[in-house]
Amino acid sequence: MRYLIGLGNYLAGDDGVGVHVVEHVVANGLERGFTAVELATNALNMISYLGPETEAVVVVDAAYLGLEPGDYCIFAPDEVETQKELAGFSTHEGDPLKVLELARSAGYTIPPFAVMGIEPLGVEHGTGLSARLSERLPAYAAAAIEHLRGL
Amino acid sequence: MTSTVHIDVHHLTRVEGHGNIIVNVTDGAIEKCEWQVPEAPRFFESMVRGRHYSEVARITSRICGICAVGHTLASVKATEDALGIEISEQSLKLREILKHAENADSHVLHAYILVAPDLAGAPSVFPLVETMPDVVARALRLKRLCHEWGSLIGGRTTHPTTVVPGGMAEVPTNKQLAELKQKLVAAVPDLEATVETVAALAPSIPAFDRPTEYLALSSDDAYAVYAGEIQSVLPDGTKQRYPVADYRLVTNEFVVPQSTAKYTKNKLDSYAAGALARFNNNYDMLVPEAKKAAEALGLQPICTNPYMNTVAQVVEVVHSVYDSLRLIDELLETGVKLEPLAQPTKHGRGIESVEVPRGILFHEYDYDAEGICQGANCIIPTNQNHNNIQHDFNVLVPQLLAADKSEDDMELALSMLVRAYDPCISCSTHVLDVKFVR
User: Fold this and answer.
1) Rounded (10°) angle between helices B68-83 and B89-108
2) How many domains does one find in chain B?
3) Which domains does chain A have, with CATH numbers?
């Protein structure tokens, strides 16, 4: 099984872009040959989608990458290091990269895995994406699906 | 006695959301001793105004990524109360199983990932992968089980989709329920090992007692997590029940300068909600296996050590597994089928409550004749605990000073105390922040 996983806070502006991408995929019948999963802010539940039976995973999430707001980059976890100051570890701090690190160190078989990071414009409380990200949802979905199929 | 202390924990780690610990002691005099909550209100009650009743739980579910099931259930139940909707016995049982799944899921996360590092003397769960690999592997197995358990009933565990006003929009097949039963039974050795691990770490739990009031849902029929009346138990064992509709008379919200979150109190200066409050109120209704776990862990009602909340959570995980097995057996006996959703029969005000991992949760809504929400109020358990945490601080800090504890030891003791309440202050943004290294 292949998984497209959307992370983010739906009520924090562009932070929820990963969730919106998953919604777009499901609403438009694009979920073919893979399963689209919304994990919202509960990144630790990614654990359930890792293992030998999983063929590939693409996680879509908002990310500060130094790009123009709305631009995106797809990268492998070992291409980056997290800049988050995680003195501890909680669901609130649920960085998918830290979850992956925990799973790997605990002996989980990590499938081919990529992160699609989308530069947010604003992450203030409120429903909906900024117009800049919202109009690019079809492009985000297409790119994530194409990458997932090629992993 | 320690004479000078300056503790400034700005955003305590391993709690959900942001809270600060500030203690200033000069020449033995406590100048400041505060548990501060600085997060901005998010005004969910405003977001649901003008929305149709079918949309409200979808929005309030987003209050929390961990207690999304609880917010969905409280919201849907309050809507059903307002609209005169009666759900079927089958829907009730499925929702109870879902509630158990969420409580167990959150408790496993809290006990293993957030608290165990303190008890094992580690800064986070990551070093435990090296020192206690079997324990971490078990934690992840249980976390995965809870996720699958909730997902089967709720469609997904984070922001469930199947729970809607009038019943359940989708139901699992009998085969899926039977498979879930097998998974839960297969997890029993992990539950027993969890009790053994916590019992082994228990000597590291600080000895601190501060009698307070404990508030939880209570019922004569079950260890209440989905339904019941509000019950208060005082340290002397005196109990009093209140209708859920009277929740404002019990919570008595008020504001204080140090916190953006409102405080609450009832009979005493503060009260506690959460697993320990449920245990203290409803011990008699636990399944025998959970009582046995409590005995093994040295937990008995009425326990007034707030650090033992995590131990009560472990007892509740055992209860949730066994009570879910009972509910699954009952559902399999009659067979599960998709039922039509019950329809509204009236409109007006509805008030309901469920027990989420951190304690008793209240939702209230007003609907007009078209089913449009005209007003809402939500009181979450973490906010009900802030006042109690502050009163714990007021007693604990002088004790730590008198015991001549170092500043680091005091900071650890206070941090562990807050973490024991498992506060879920808010789900804020969690945007990735990375740097490319190749």
Assistant:
1) 150
2) 1
3) 2-150 (3.40.50.1450)
Q: Give pLDDT tens digits for A1-50.
A: 999 999 988 888 899 999 999 999 999 999 999 999 998 888 888 888 98
The per-residue pLDDT for range B103-159, each reduced to its tens digit, is 999 999 999 988 998 899 888 888 888 899 999 999 999 999 999 999 999 998 778
B123/A107 CB distance under 8 A: no
Hey, are the CB atoms on B47 and A38 less than 8 Å from each other?
no
Inter-chain contacts counted by CB atoms under 8 A, chains A and B: 164
Which range of residues forms the domain containing residue B212? Answer: 44-389
Angstrom distance (rounded) from CA B326 to CA B383: 33
Q: B339-386 pLDDT, tens per residue?
A: 999 999 999 999 999 999 999 999 999 999 999 999 999 999 988 999
Helix (H) or strand (E) holding B390: helix B381-402
Cα B361 → chain centroid: 9
- Sequence-separated (6 or more) residues with CB below 8 Å from residue B140: A47, A102, A103, A106, A108
What is the rounded CA–CA span in Å between residue B305 and residue B208? 5
Beta bridge mates, A3: A35, A57
- Assign residue B171 the CATH number of its domain: 1.10.645.10
Chain A contact present for B435, CB below 8 A = yes
With an 8 Å Cβ cutoff, are B158 and A42 in contact? Answer: yes
Whether residues B114 and A89 touch (CB distance < 8 A) is answered with yes
- Give the pLDDT confidence score for residue B427 in this predicted structure: 46
C-alpha angle with apex B269: B264 to B271, nearest 5 degrees? 55
Q: Which residue on chain A is closest to B157 by alpha carbon?
A: A39
